[in-house]
Amino acid sequence: MLRVIRVQGSSMSPDYCHGDFVIVGRGRWFPIRVGHTVVFWFSNLGFMIKKLTQMKDDGFYVAGTNPQSLTSQQMGLVPHQNMLGRVLFRISLKT
After folding, report:
1. What pTM, to 2 d.p., does this model score?
2. End-to-end Cα distance, the chain
3. 14-63 pLDDT, tens digit each
4. How far apart are CA 53 and CA 72, in angstroms?
């Protein structure tokens, strides 16, 4: 399954910037591993894009590339069912 998501915010800058689009894949053709950039749902904040830093049986931990971004240290463990998928491609419309 593929989805297109628009990046909002700067938590992953400079790799992904506000206004970029990402193609997100999930399923057996798109395995998710530590180090991948992932999109997930976080209650009260909506969809988020972060680097996957650790996977546990009951969830996963993430971090942004921007030093001022939220990480799992502030958010806590994210449940597996909140995972939308991993980023496959970035589309930037900025010149």
Report:
1. 0.90
2. 29
3. 889 999 999 999 999 999 999 999 999 988 888 999 999 999 999 999 99
4. 9
Give the β-pairing of 21-25 and 2-6: antiparallel
Strand partners of residue 48: 40
Whether residue 23 contacts residue 87, with contact meaning beta carbons closer than 8 Å, is answered with yes
Residue 95's pLDDT is what? 58
pLDDT digits (tens, 9 = 90+) for 5-22: 999 988 888 889 999 999
Question: Which H, E and C letters describe 31-73, residue by residue?
Answer: CCCCCCEEEEEECCCEEEEEEEEEEECCEEEEECCCCCCCCHH
Q: Give all strands of the β-sheet with 21-25 in edge-to-edge order.
A: 2-6, 21-25, 83-91, 37-42, 46-56, 59-63
- Are the CB atoms for 2 and 25 separated by under 8 Å? yes
